[in-house]
Amino acid sequence: MDQQLVSCYRHPDRETGIRCTRCDRPICPQCMVSASVGFQCKECVGQAAGAQVQPRTVAGGSVAADPFLITKILIGLNIAVFLLELAKGNALVNRLDLYAVCGQLPSGQHGCIGVAHGPDQWYRILTSAFAHENAMPPLHIGFNMLSLWWIGAPLERMLGRSRYLALYFVSAVAGSAAVLLLAPSSPTLGASGAIFGLFGATAVFMRRMRYDMRPILILLALNLVFSFTWSGVSWQGHLGGLAGGTLIALALAYAPREHRALVQWGTSAVVLVAALVISAIAVAQVTS
User: Fold this and answer.
1) Which of 171, 176, 234, 238 does the annotation list as catalytic?
2) What is the pTM of this model?
3) DSSP 8-state secondary structure symbol assigned to residue 150
4) What CATH number is attached to the domain comprising 171?
5) Which of 181, 39, 159 is nearest to 115 (CA)?
6) What's the CA gap between 19 and 24, in Å, rounded?
7) What are phi and psi of 72, to 5 degrees?
8) Domain annotation covers residue 63
9) Are 98 and 234 in a shared domain?
10) Residue 23 has what pLDDT?
11) What is the mean predicted confidence (pLDDT) over 15-37?
């Protein structure tokens, strides 16, 4: 018995005896795609491709072709700023570092400098995390960039780019907030606050994945001892970054699957707002 010819659902002027094996609509040769069994229409093929499960990171982020790209960019930005510091000298460092002071200025007048000068100086909360001592040999930036690569690269692969980037920047802002609250008159600069946030996040995820936590805890303890015993190191920024990064990592690691993105990004936003509020309170205390 001959198969009845009907019109293609996309081209009514063309008769066909072939139907899509998924939706059973008639399809002409131009609309059919060879499948494992029979032919499918282009719409069903497209829907099937879109329905495929995309690979995700442990935290629910997208898996990238280069899982270390953001870490490389951050290291590149820090090195670029350091080279500019070498070229421009302390004048550039003084425009990027973090502090808030009110009192008698070198001109003899009373006024405020640093973040306390006004909202136009609040960029220092973030730029201070990309500036380092422009001394030679470059030990400050050298140690920080090695730590960023050793700790940051594996964490970026574990989190995905967007979550890793949010963790880094909010940790940096949290570190600056702690400095403004506890040591506002001390010029502070360096990526250490953000890196300590990565330390805290690494510890959280090692606990979440049931890895041996002794290596990261020993490394974190050594860095904290160094923070409190080495002259000129901002322990305030380290603790602030550690606290901010750990709080965000807890949400990244333990958010319920049903509302994972909402909990993760909501927690990141709350920590960021809290850090900015703390910074505003600290600056208000300096200027009062």
Assistant:
1) 238
2) 0.81
3) I
4) 1.20.1540.10
5) 181
6) 5
7) -65, -40
8) no
9) yes
10) 82
11) 80
